[in-house]
């Protein structure tokens, strides 16, 4: 497989490429306020979940299509690129209709070949970067299968997100990193950009910096970090979200060593 760069025009090709924004788009005010603060810290690619795959029913399941308009407003007002998660054909249509710049496939969706195939079929002929999160279960072949489904549909601007793997065992991690799995993926596909999601691996604010540094030491290309203007009040993943100010501090403290293979 030959991949094209996932980078959008004007985003510097320099490690770490940063994607940041709230777990969920909650309200227009929260989306805009967080975006303005992140843009002020130099973030160029904004993330916000519009359809939220919650483990159990009863939680906030996303603001849906209206939130895509808030993301369009983010682009207009801050100049940032905007990205969201897609899990179904409808999500893809709506995201393209509202001009998302980048899409990602969530961990629960990557574990479902029917859903990945549906997304791939819907994206046929569309020129958009797509990031594929690892499946919730530690199954490298399933992750590669999802990459192949998109690639076979003609998409070449593909990247992957390492967000850790579910566990029932008590652990300091929310999702076990199992670093050997993404490392093996990188060994097999050296041109595939790999982005670390320390927010979902760590599950708490205090772990973001250490996991981000580990990813940089392992030569990862980028980081996707959940950031919210008021993390304590977030409607999802509150414990792991950090303010744009904290994000900037963490990024400033990261040590980026030159590539040593
Ligand atoms: C998210 O990015 O907010 C999310 C739902 O992540 P994951 O698919 O990794 O659980
Ligand atoms: Mn989240």
TrEMBL record:
Record-listed E.C. numbers: 5.4.99.5
UniProt KW keywords: Coiled coil, Transferase
Keyword Membrane among record annotations: no
BP-aspect Gene Ontology terms: chorismate metabolic process
Molecular function per GO: chorismate mutase activity; transferase activity
Domain of life from the UniProt record: Bacteria
EC main group: isomerase
UniProt protein name: chorismate mutase
Annotated source species: Petrimonas mucosa
